[in-house]
Amino acid sequence: MAYLPFYLTPEEFEDLQSKQEQKIREGSNLCTWSCSNIEEAFRWNAVKHTCFALIPGVLLFLFIAHVAHHWIGSVSAVLVFGAIAYATYLQMGVDNLYEYALSEFGLIQKKCRYEPKWLNTTMQAIAGLCAFASLFSIAVVGSMAFASTGIFLLMGWGMMNRKPMNESKTVIAHSSDFLFAHYNKKRRVVHFFHKYDACFYQDVAKTTVRRSQTRGGSYLFFKSEQELEEVIQRFTDEWNLDCYEIDDVNKLFDLDSGKPAELIKTPSRSQSYLKEEIHKKKESGEAELRWRYLYKGQWLTDKEIEQFDNAEAEG
Q1: Taking the CB of residue 265, how many other CB atoms lie within 10 A of it?
Q2: Residue 158: Cβ within 10 Å count
Q3: Using CA atoms, how far apart are residues 6 and 199, in angstroms rounded to an integer?
């Protein structure tokens, strides 16, 4: 197994992961691709829910625009609704952007929200324009205009402080840690199972670290069936992996079916510890946690499984 050392800070983990990524990209037969998608059985499920969520907003803003006593109020309603509708889409309906790299040394997956770089600036500009139009309407018409434009002023002011939602998450799997894959050609997706490292802060103050050496699945999305077939062929030819075609695409995204027996047999270990304790743990040479298996609904070590079976036999 190619896990990183157990006791690390997230900053140390990120540095070591960058070196792993560089090594994979320097490997032979490097294949890179990207795709925007969502981790749902129905490709446009997020857009569907966004449209349903906006129906009350459409009715509300049509009513406000209708009763507004000045044309500026109507224009503000249209502008703010457009901005809020797009913001709702970004919250609920926007795709994730996936970037992949596959070579002889392993697989890299980078995942982030598919938000264009220019979007945040545009949203803030629209919000500023709405706030200015509301203030101008109040100045021209008087306090009566505040009844119809006040809400736009508050919303516009809040949207001016919006921050982009494009933080990237990286998962790296070494070729020696590949397990198996499930795929569906029609949906053009592979649910690829592998071992991997994880290390992150559990709290906002960044004092508690959650560290895992575990196993799980990553979704590999493709723009065509040909791309998918080429990667599946590499998995079977180069790494002799078992790749199973799943006809029911819902099973690829179902939580209960996302833990097949082959995955459950693979051990895992996780621990939370204070950041200030890491140096002490390294210096003292503290033993790492024992590997645990998911056995009959419990995480148990080899010894605990043996004791559990003996207790059942005696009972």
Answers
A1: 12
A2: 11
A3: 9
Measure CA 278 to chain center: 27
Q: Are 191 and 258 in contact (CB under 8 A)?
A: yes
Q: Please tell me the distance from the alpha carbon of residue 310 to that of residue 315, in angstroms, as a whole number.
A: 8
3-state DSSP assignment of residue 240: coil
pLDDT in tens, 22-68: 999 999 999 999 998 888 877 776 667 667 666 666 666 666 666 65
Q: What are phi and psi of 102, to 5 degrees?
A: -130, 125
Rounded Cα distance between 265 and 300, Å, is: 12
Q: Length of the chain, please?
A: 315
Cα 55 to chain centroid distance, Å, stands at 27
Contacts for 91 with CB less than 8 Å, ≥ 6 apart: none
Instruction: Identify the H or E element spanning 51.
Output: helix 45-67
Q: Which amino acid is at 99?
A: E
